[in-house]
Design goal:
Distance between the termini: 52 Å
Shape: globular
Structural class: alpha/beta
Order of helices and strands: EHHHEHEHEHHEHEHHHEHEEEHEHHEHHH
Strand order of the largest sheet: 1-12-11-7-10
Number of strands: 12
Helix content: 40-55%
Bound molecules: 5-phosphoarabinonic acid
Number of domains: 3
Largest sheet: 5 strands, mixed
Radius of gyration: 24 Å
CATH superfamily of the largest domain: Glucose-6-phosphate isomerase like protein, domain 1
Strand content: 5-15%
CATH class of the largest domain: Alpha Beta
Number of helices: 18
CATH architecture of the largest domain: 3-Layer(aba) Sandwich
Length: 473
């Protein structure tokens, strides 16, 4: 198999190490197996296209919503200079996209440039750990904080509780009218009480389209409002995603990276029994995207599937690993443990910094072979070395390479993964866009926190506790 070169798109997919020629017939794919399955890929493409044309799913349209992009930029401009912290309150799909963008374009938090009103930091409150929320509030100045509560349902317990605390904190420190000017809500237009709250308190509000689920919402106001407020180039993000969208509709596996990679991942997963996928970026700035991808893949493709004869469980567990760091933590398992994984390396073609290593020799062999070389070469070599060592142990792996890591390429990468996920969902014949598996836990939480209307879940929970009480192990 040859690497897929996409001349118009600067994300390249190299599936060579998924082939049987590299990792053996038991773990890799033959050209015949791929050729035989191509109709499934084209069916997935046309089936998904029809659903999008019917407006069932909205994410492919998002990069083209120039009016919204302009409105978000205008809002960001109108408040620029007034805050040094953007505080997102959201969870899951309402938090991970903003993190993927911020981490991708400005770096992981501890090593970002010092924050200021010119370079506001992003603080994402995506948990209800009381110590975490306490420390976050202590670290923020209410007079210089812009709060962005994000919830599509307008009812998520984690987001509502933390937002109540942050709202109260703003009110106590600034007073009601000033506090209202420091909040921008992102929620659904016609559902959920966060919207009603926003109307009541006259808060600036951006809406999430009905046909875009949380994990597919990075290019709605969910990801774009925090990104624009943090000063990121959201137009470039959307332009990259728009170009990728164009390619994702092509009926040509050599140009459509999302479709080709969906087909090969689906085959490796289902035919070669690789029940785990390791998303392995070799770039700290892609670490946020790896966590975003983990949710996308897990929540979209982990489902109960029913056909006429039986009910069974489908899913491929996504793991996020960081190269080269996790070579010293995970690769022992990856090379010698169970051969149940497929590895997806994410590489950067041209680094913006080379990380030159000083030329001067020290007289010590462990240092001197490195002298005058660069970290960019070292990290690439480490990735190639890891891919080779996994391949020689018959572990199937592939590589996505971004020509460079900037807003355009990041937008393209995220959009490519969303299409890839949607295509694999079609090939598996499951609904990649719902998440019934998280509902019961949410309902138990409502019941146990005393929310009205959840008594039946309280009784169900109590029955479960009663069962536990009788068990000894
Ligand atoms: O992808 C999803 O749909 C979920 O992860 C949601 O984003 C998450 O549960 C948060 O939901 P909400 O935005 O309603 O608070």
């Amino acid at each position: 198999m040859v690497a897929v070169k996409t001349p118009l798109m600067a994300i390249h997919f190299d599936p060579t190490n998924l082939s049987a020629a590299m990792v053996g017939d038991k773990h890799g794919l033959t050209q015949q197996e791929v050729a035989d399955s191509q109709p499934a890929a084209f069916e997935a493409l046309s089936g998904f296209k029809q659903s999008v044309e019917k407006d069932d799913y909205g994410f492919p349209h998002l990069p083209f919503k120039t009016k919204l992009i302009k409105e978000i930029k205008a809002y960001a401009k109108s408040v620029a200079g007034k805050y040094d912290t953007v505080c997102v309150v959201g969870i899951g799909g309402s938090a991970l996209g903003a993190w993927a963008l911020d981490c991708g374009l400005r770096g992981p938090h501890p090593v970002q440039k010092a924050f200021s009103t010119k370079n506001p930091r992003l603080v994402i409150l995506d948990n209800v750990d009381p110590g975490f929320i306490h420390s976050a509030l202590e670290s923020m100045n209410p007079a210089k904080t812009l709060v962005v509560p994000i919830a599509k349902s307008g009812a998520t317990a984690e987001t509502m509780s933390v937002f109540l605390i942050v709202h109260d904190w703003l009110h106590a420190k600034l007073g009601g009218s000033k506090a209202a000017g420091r909040i921008a809500v992102v929620t659904s237009e016609n559902t959920g009480e966060l919207k009603e709250f926003a109307v009541k308190y006259k808060l600036v509000t951006f809406h999430i389209p009905k046909n875009v689920g949380g994990r597919f919402s990075v290019l709605t106001a969910v990801g774009l409002v925090p990104a624009a407020l943090a000063g990121l180039d959201i137009s470039a993000v959307c332009k990259g995603a728009a170009e990728m969208t164009r390619l994702c509709w092509l009926e040509n596996l050599e140009e459509n990276v999302a479709l080709k990679s969906a087909l090969l991942h689906w085959l490796i997963w289902t035919k070669k029994k690789k029940s785990i996928q390791v998303a392995f970026p070799y770039a700290n700035r892609l670490w946020g995207a790896a966590f975003w991808f983990r949710q996308l893949w897990a929540e979209s493709l982990g489902k109960v599937k029913k056909d006429k004869k039986r009910v069974f469980n489908v899913g491929q567990t996504p793991i996020a690993a960081l190269g080269a760091t996790d070579q010293h933590s995970q690769v022992q398992l990856y090379r010698e443990g169970p051969n149940d994984k497929v590895y997806s390396f994410w590489a950067v073609g041209k680094w913006s910094e080379s990380g030159k290593i000083p030329k001067a020799k020290t007289g010590y062999a462990s240092f001197d072979y490195l002298a005058g070389q660069s970290l960019s070469k070292l990290i690439d070599v480490e990735r190639l070395a890891t891919a080779a060592s996994l391949t020689l142990a018959q572990r199937p792996n592939c590589t996505f390479t971004l020509d460079k890591l900037d807003a355009w390429h990041l937008g393209a990468l995220l959009q490519m993964f969303e299409f890839q996920t949607a295509f694999v969902g079609r090939m598996l014949e499951i609904d990649a866009f719902d998440q019934p598996g998280v509902e019961l836990g949410k309902k138990f939480t409502f019941a146990l926190m005393g929310r009205e209307g959840y008594d039946e879940y309280k009784s169900e929970y109590e029955a479960y506790e009663a069962r536990r009480a009788g068990v000894k192990l």
